[in-house]
Amino acid sequence: MTTPTLTRPELTAADRCDRCGAAAQVRAILKGGELLFCGHHAREHEAKLKELSADIQR
C-alpha cells in the first residue's frame, strides 16, 4: 500500500505574501499549515523557517 502525496498548486498572481500583501514567490510548508512570502520576507525569515524544518517551495 502506498501513501498518497498531496501536491500544492503553483503560486499565481492572486497569491499574496502573508506579511505584506505583495505577490507571493515562496511557499513555506510547516506542520500546522503553510505560509506565503514575497521574496523579501522569504529571505528575512529563511533561517527561522529552516530551523523549524519547513519545506520551502520557490
Number of strands: 3
Order of helices and strands: EEHE
Shape: flat
Strand-residue proportion = 15-25%
Cα radius of gyration in angstroms: 12 Å
Contiguous uncertain segments of 5+ residues: none
Global structural class: alpha+beta
Major pleated sheet: 3 strands, antiparallel
- Total helical elements: 1
Q: What share of the residues lie within helices? A: 10-25%
Instruction: Quote the average pLDDT.
Output: 92
What strand line-up does the widest sheet have? 2-1-3
How many angstroms separate the termini?
31 Å
Organism: Amycolatopsis mongoliensis
Pfam family, one: DUF7455
Domain DUF7455: 11-57
Protein name: DUF7455 domain-containing protein
Task: Describe this protein's structure.
Residues 11-57 form the DUF7455 domain. This is DUF7455 domain-containing protein. The protein has 58 residues and is of the alpha+beta class. It is 22% helix and 22% strand. It has one helix and three strands; from the N terminus they run E-E-H-E. It has a three-stranded antiparallel β-sheet. The model has no long low-confidence stretch (mean pLDDT 92).
Summarize the structure in short.
22% of the residues lie in helices and 22% in strands. The chain is built from one helix and three strands. The longest helix is centred in the C-terminal third of the chain and has 13 residues, at 39-51.
Descriptive terms for the model:
58 residues, DUF7455 domain-containing protein, 3 strands, flat, alpha+beta, DUF7455
SSE blueprint and pairings:
Elements: E1 26-30, E2 33-37, H1 39-51, E3 55-57
Antiparallel strand pairs: 1-2, 1-3
